[in-house]
Amino acid sequence: MFGSGIDTSQLLQALYETLYMVTVALVIGALIGIPLGILLVVTRKNGVWPNVIIHQILNPVINILRSIPFIILLIAIVPFTKLLVGTSIGTTAAIVPLTVYVAPYIARLVENSLLEVDDGIIEAAKAMGASPFQIIRHFLLPEALGSLVLAITTAIIGLIGSTAMAGAVGGGGIGDLALVYGYQRFDTLVIIITVIVLVIIVQIIQSLGNIISRMIRRN
Questions:
Q1: Coil/strand/helix, residue 69
Q2: In degrees rounded to 5, what are phi and psi of residue 29?
Q3: Would you say 11 and 182 are in contact if contact means Cβ atoms under 8 Å apart?
Q4: What distance in Å separates the CA atoms of residue 25 and residue 105, rounded to the nearest whole number?
């Protein structure tokens, strides 16, 4: 017991639910967001594979999804969530809106990272006769890898914050624990404990991301 309304097993269960939601949503979101981010860069007017139609479709769609606050998105796609997982309540159900939220977020982060790559490197690759796929695979992504690691780190931290909001609709996790046992029962200690846990998780993830990014850039 922590001298409050929760015990160690409840905290560990909430932590597991948070990590579960973050991990699954991140993997699916990255599988969607990373290709979208690459497309946003390569289909630009001066990109390695210019395509005005694709770029003009992707850009506003991602902007629209990015502009919707997560708590509103959570409620707005309830029918879609029910269609996919059969319910809109619970940890697994929360993964759907989390994925819809993080995929365009990752796309923008990837886009920004890739745009940091020196144009001279791309021009040199073109001069050597590299195809668009070869430029992406052997030049663009490797050069941006350190920045991409930090981008994914930022996405993970954003997801952790969103899982806390998912607790407002029964999504489980640390946020649900803070809401049900802390806010609704006026137990300040529970809220303090959950905040400390979240801060520790975020600090660990950010530190690991920074270390990995530095290692990649040194190499």
A1: coil
A2: -65, -40
A3: no
A4: 12
